[in-house]
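Following up on my earlier thread - several people asked me to post the actual chain instead of describing it. Fair enough. Here it is, all 324 residues.
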Amino acid sequence: MSFKNNITLPSGAPVPQIGLGTWLSKPKEVENAVEIAVRNGYRHLDLAYIYGNQDEVGAALKKVIPSVVKREELFITGKLWNNAHRPELVEKQLDESLAQIGTNYLDLYLIHWPIAFRPGSEVFPTDANGKVDIDREVTLLQTWKAMLELPKTGKVRAVGVSNFTVEQIKALTAATGVKPACNQVEAHPYLPQDELLAYAKQEGILVTAYSPLGNNMVGKPRLTDHATVKQIAEKTGADVAQVLIAWAAQKGFSVIPKSVQEGRIKSNFQQITLSSEDFDAISAIGRGNHTRFNIPCAYDPFWPVNLFNEPDEAKEPHKPLLGV
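Reply from S.P.:
Thanks for posting it. Predicted structure:
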C-alpha cells in the first residue's frame, strides 16, 4: 500500500503524496478507474476541465461517497482552461467543473497553462491558418487576481498554477503578495525540474509531478524501458513504474501517475523506498539527456507559443503575457 505520506500546503491542508491522474484517459474509462482507485486507498484525484471526463469522475464519486469515503477525506484538484482566462470567466468555468464533478468545492484549483486562448465555447479556437488563436487582451496577472478571489466564495480551498516557470511565479507573487499553493509540472528523470523544485521548497510551494513515467509522445524510448530502471526494479522486486514513482516521491514531489487498468492502479499505489545508490542512479539518467515530452507547439491543433524556451519552441511568436 501507499506510505500514506502527505505534503502540506501553505494553508496547512494535507495533500496525499500519491494521487490518480486522469489526463489522456479515453471516454468511459475514467469512471471505473476512479472508483477502483478510491476503493483501494487513493485519496488524491487530479482532474481538469479540458480532459473532458469530469462527468465520469462525478459518476464514480457517487458510487464511493459516502459508502467508502467522505468528501472531506478526498483531495480533488481541478484546472482552469485557457479559454477562460479573462477575469469574468474564471468563476463561471469553475462552476461548470463543480457541476460536472458533482461537488460544491475543490481542494485545489490551478491555472492550467500560462497562455490564454480566445474566449468562447471552443476549447481550441483556431485562426484562419488553423493554429490556436491566442488571446493577447488578458494578462496572467489579471487571471491570477481573479483566481485569488475564489477561496472567498468557498468553492475552492486553495489556488495555484500549472506549467509555470520560476520567473512567472516570482512575478505574480511580487505583484500580488500571494504565492500559488502549488505548481503542477511535467517531471521525471529526463526532466527533474531541480531549479523549480528547489525554489518551491524554499517558498513552501507544493510541486506536483505529472507524467512521472515519461511517455513516448516525441518518439523517444520510454523511461519504463530504460536499462537502469529495469535493473533497479528487478533488484528491488518492484515494477518499473513503482521505481519511477518512488524516485519522484523521494525528490519531494506529489506524484499523479495515470492509469485506467485495475492492476496498474493498485500497483502504482504500492510504494517502495529506493536506496541512495539507486536514487542517484536514476537521477543520472537525465544528465545530458534533457527531454520535455509535453510541448504545446507539437500539439494538434498547433499552439504558436514559446512557454519553456525549448529549442522546438524558439521560433514561435507568442510568450506568456505577464502584465507586470
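The mean pLDDT is 95. That should answer part of your original question.
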